[in-house]
Fold this protein.
Amino acid sequence: MAWTPVETYLGDLPTEPTTVMPLPIPVDVKGSEILVYSFITIQDIKDPLFTGYYRIFTKDEHGTEHSMYMNAPYIQGTIANSENFWLPYGTGFDTSVYVSLVSNGPIPSERKTQHRIVPKRVEDLMHAQTRLPKDQYIRGQVFITGIKN
């Protein structure tokens, strides 16, 4: 099957665990599969028990979730991770990509009380605003970068 490269921004990754966020797929995206690109940058999350991963999925007409995963390790220092993967999409599928942050530990308490706006990427693709202490942040985004016809 042929595929077509595209660049479609879907949205920011959530920064709070257990939140499932729908990221609407634009109506002009047509095909049987979509190539999803996601990235995460994490800096100086100080709670050693707070580790997790992102689950990114589509839903078919029967409600079946087709999932892929991206690791989001929280450590001192700065870490980056990204994933490219094909997800099924097309006739009968829900018109969103869903994203959730799954964590095996508590939300660091300081995340609820401090505020910081994460700076934008040079390419002007970074739209995330994250509420974290001045020296800590989580930022990431999701794009569609290809369509399989």
The chain has a mean pLDDT of 76. The chain has no helices and eight strands.
